[in-house]
Design a protein that fits this description.
This protein has about 280 residues and is of the alpha/beta class. About 40% of the residues lie in helices and about 20% in strands. Strands 3-4-2-1-5-6-11-10-7-8-9 form an eleven-stranded mixed β-sheet, with helices on both faces.
């Protein structure tokens, strides 16, 4: 069951869009959101080029503490206001089946906080990486490779669709990653009013078909249909077809090849990460 969603945040202006999508799912599934503020330690702020005199170190620590305290206060204020507008209760003792949220502070780099908090979550929600600003890439990688959990990648702008999660598409090519994505997102599939399997591209040699996946879902009480497509670049086609079908969420297996190779040669997952303007659940 989808009962715990981790939303790691820092002062980069992306909190509201990620929290908005996480809140929509929390309401739909009765889940508890843990907003984890990643607070940098003083040692993370020190330059590595040379040793600092003790007075300079003390000054830097004091300034870092002051900035971190202010950032935390601002984020808490935003959280209180935003959650109140969504009518979601703030509590440290969630009730199963009721949407709620709590704010926790964790020290360390964003990637480390995600790894530590994400492994006992049912979903990790992060913002789409912004390559131009060099923000978010490490967070997405940590969520995918270090938690073993599904990762909701939220678009960097735009409002949450009113029917978010009602119509879901799932990319299917018979791969191991796609199979994991199916198994780890059954709750999302069950909660959707409509589920469409997107089948196209080369697929896996001797891999299972979309019709077999339909039967897999049927045995679990989920009605699914299939949409077959032909595209030279499936990574570009998947979000586009999802939008054309009127779906609000795409689910897919991520980085079937290693991350470095996909990033270098533009594999399907990397194309989706770079270009998608819709929410995507990625499973590695």
């Amino acid at each position: 069951m989808l009962r715990k969603i981790i939303v790691p945040v820092r002062g980069d202006g992306m909190t509201q869009t990620v929290l908005g999508h996480a809140s929509a799912l929390a309401k739909h599934h009765g889940a508890h959101i843990v907003v984890a503020h990643c607070r940098k330690r003083a040692e993370d702020m020190r330059p590595y080029s040379r040793a600092l005199p003790s007075f300079a170190r003390a000054t830097m620590v004091a300034q870092s503490e002051e900035l971190a305290n202010q950032e935390e206060q601002d984020l808490r204020a935003q959280l209180h206001q935003f959650m109140a507008s969504l009518d979601i209760e703030e509590t440290e003792r969630p009730h199963p089946g009721t949407a709620s949220v709590e704010f926790v502070e964790d020290f360390g780099q964003m990637a480390d906080v995600i790894k530590r908090t994400g492994r006992l979550a049912d979903l990790v929600a992060v913002a789409k990486p912004d390559r131009d600003r060099n923000i978010g890439t490490n967070s997405l990688q940590s969520a995918l490779y270090q938690t073993g959990r599904p990762v909701l990648m939220c678009p960097s702008s735009g409002d949450v669709a009113p029917d978010f999660g009602a119509h879901v598409t799932i990319a299917w090519n018979g791969s191991l990653e796609a199979s994991r994505a199916v198994a780890m997102t059954l709750d999302i599939a069950r909660a959707a009013r409509s589920l469409t399997i997107l089948s196209g591209g080369k697929g896996e040699p001797h891999g299972t078909t979309a019709d077999e996946l339909i039967e897999y879902y049927r045995l679990r009480g989920v009605d699914a249909g299939a949409h077959r497509f032909e595209a030279r670049n499936p990574g570009e086609a998947l979000p586009k077809i999802t939008a054309e079908l009127g779906a609000s969420l795409l689910i897919m297996g991520a980085y079937g090849q290693n991350h470095e190779r996909e990033t270098l040669f533009g594999g399907n997952t990397q194309v989706v990460v770079d270009r998608s303007e819709i929410p995507v659940v990625l499973v590695h």
